[in-house]
Specification:
single chain, 177 residues, alpha+beta, Cyclic Phosphodiesterase, Chain: A, four-stranded antiparallel β-sheet, 3 helices, 9 strands, binds adenosine-2'-monophosphate
């Protein structure tokens, strides 16, 4: 069977310690909100979701990713939120982070030159913690604010299967690490 399309997105991945802290928060919240906690290895923020992309466009995306200039930013996660549809409890920030918003806009400008179209709705930077969550968290404050630095973006493939999605990093931009 030939796979003609790939489910792709651009993301930032917190460091291991931050992802573990987020997974702990997810486990704390899942019984309160319904749903199930996502594992530490899945904790990320999506910058640009491309969805199903024809495999013939992959080379251009790999090149775009590898040629992306070095990044340096810091993001503080200090609040919790709930998207009733698609039933996600997430971690994000009180204040939209200007560096993240700028990165999202720059990425979509570059993607537009490759024929991809940015979504209409506003970008709400978030890390999904709990899926199939029917209730909002009891408090909108994260129990302990988390500050993490990012220095590269990743082009990731999502492989849907039974249970949680599996994510595979296909390429990274230049990092300082
Ligand atoms: P989510 O965690 O908020 O569901 C892989 O599925 C990644 O792409 C996840 O981070 C997911 O965000 C995001 N994603 C899936 N569908 C999306 C969509 N239609 N628009 C934006 N992001 C999406």
């Amino acid at each position: 069977l030939v796979t003609l399309s790939r489910r792709l997105f651009f993301a930032l991945w917190p460091d291991d310690a931050s992802r573990r802290a987020l997974a702990t928060e997810a486990e704390r919240l899942a019984p309160r909100c319904g749903g199930y906690p996502l594992p530490a290895q899945n904790m990320h923020i999506t910058l640009a979701f491309l969805g199903s992309v024809d495999a013939s466009r992959l080379t251009a995306l790999l090149e775009l990713t590898r040629a992306w200039p070095a990044l340096q930013g810091e993001w503080t996660l200090d609040r919790l939120g709930h998207f009733p549809q698609p039933r996600i409890v997430w971690a994000g920030s009180q204040m939209p982070d200007p560096a993240l918003l700028a990165l999202n806009a720059e990425l979509w400008q570059a993607l537009a030159r490759h024929g991809f179209t940015a979504p209409q709705r506003d970008f709400t930077p978030h890390v999904s913690l709990v899926r199939q969550a029917d209730r909002a968290p009891p408090s909108s404050r994260l129990s302990a604010p988390l500050c993490w630095r990012f220095d590269h973006l990743a082009l990731v493939e999502s492989q849907l299967g039974e249970g949680d999605s599996r994510y595979r990093t296909l390429a990274c931009s230049h990092g300082t690490a």
